[in-house]
Amino acid sequence: MRTSLSLFCLFLSFAYCQTSDQIRPVPDTPIGYYEGDPLPPKTAYLTFDDGPSDWTSDVLDVLKKENVRATFFVCAAWLPKTNRRENSFKKYRNTLIRMKEEGHIIGNHTFGHRNFEQMSRAKIENQLEENEKLYKKELGEYSGNLTWIRPPFGSPFIRTRSETSKKRVGEALQGKGLVFMWTKEFDSTDSKEWVRGEWYEKGPRIDPENQSFRRKMDRIYNSLVSKTEGQGIVILFHDTHPTTKEVLPFIIEKLKEEGYTFATAEDYTKWRWGKTSEELFEEGID
To answer: What pTM was computed for the model?
Structure first.
């Protein structure tokens, strides 16, 4: 009986490893989470791209109230140049420090949110390195390494079928960190449009009672909660949209009702590899 059990466990281990290897878009892509990778059941990973912004502190308020930790992929220069007097890490330094202190994970979303598929390897590396350099400069002792990466637009791992692009970008990302994509069906689509009543900064434009604003909230909510069936999910949000922070409490409440727990990219690393991202990064595992 013990021999049979051992053989069965060995079979499962082999099958898991095979599945894990096959998920990588191409062999040279760094390890991480990609569409189709294993996830623990009834676990929701809330991720937020493009911040920090005027709305990030409100998102943090919601997460704190709900006792949920999330993962934020940050850009130093997301805001339009005409409205950017200083980099976002400097402008929202206290928000980022709060993010760290409250147990959230911060990852690299590049300096200027450019599409990797349209860039040379040198420019890709520069976008990541400049972003982390500014992050460490502005946060100082609070910073740490940005060991997680999310390519802007998910490109080329979401939007293209070009194996050549995936290979070229994957090679550029080697040694820069672990990649954390999202579950394709769980893109909240909150960034698809700016509707009347919302804007990327606080001010008189903002009107959560506007019908367009409310309809967008309903669309985001329904597009996510209608697809949950107990599977593990990585949800893509953007903390640059006020509709996101308004609908977030309702989404969290619904997921909790369905028995979901919440985790971060770092939790995923420990679950899947039994190590922190820092340990994997230092070991040079690709």
So the answer is: 0.89
